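Lesson 9: reading folded outputs for more than one chain in a single document. The general rule is that every protein is listed as its sequence immediately followed by its structure tokens, and records are never interleaved. Here is the first one.
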Amino acid sequence: MPTKDNTPRKRVEYRGKIIRVSRTGGVSARETISKDGYGATLNTNHGVRFHKRLFKGARVGLQNGNFQFIGRYNNGPFNFNISKSGVSTSIQNNRGSYNLFKPNYSSFKMGGVQLRGKNAAILHIVFMVFKLIVSLVQLFWHILVDVLWLLLLVIRWFIDFIKGFYKGFKFDKIETTTKT
């Protein structure tokens, strides 16, 4: 029985306007024609796809006799993908994206090397926990500085109040002795 080669692979590709050359996919050419929400894409590897834009982020299509529905939406750091096979949500940051529903579809990029799958999911969790710890330390530091500043202001106000009260009492005592 042959053994499976699990060595990590680097992505090697060239993307031009209509040509894409990659290590795994080979050479392919693509041309898209679209007008008024309707479009057709001719790809040398995947055939012809006819598609119709439903609304922003969603389209339906027909490729090689198979129906397609694709919807992509984003709101803040979250990305939502809807297709025939289901729904997925991912969080995107500067290191890649972590898929919440399907963690094995995550990607992680560091030092020019992109990882996908389970290894990327583990690295993303470690990265997000590290960022959470750093953010919590920063939050507690800012809260501590604000509380100390407020405490300093209260102490300064109290000292000024005592000084003013003392000067007022002393001035009142001087006036009463001079009048008699």
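And here is the second record, again sequence then tokens.
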Amino acid sequence: MRANRAYRLIVRRGGWLPASIADPGRADHVEVVEVASGEVLLAWNLPPIRASRLARALRTDLSQLEPAQFAERWLEPHEQSDFAPDGRDWSESDSWV
């Protein structure tokens, strides 16, 4: 079973314009929800471009990884980074929940 069956990705845009031409001050919300419990596991408020890139990375991992692999990569704390795999800091100067 793929992770996209166990987790749901929700992206809420702060406006109707696409990320590429949106106001950089706009805040888009990205969250990962566990399907079985409905619990929000990860959530970010980011500028449009960064939210779009994060959502793309999450979608890729959700479609390619097993649920345990996805949880290990995104949900468990990492020694080198407090925020996300690959050392990316998706929340730099933004709020990370």
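What the second record shows: Helices lie at 3-6, 48-64, 67-75.
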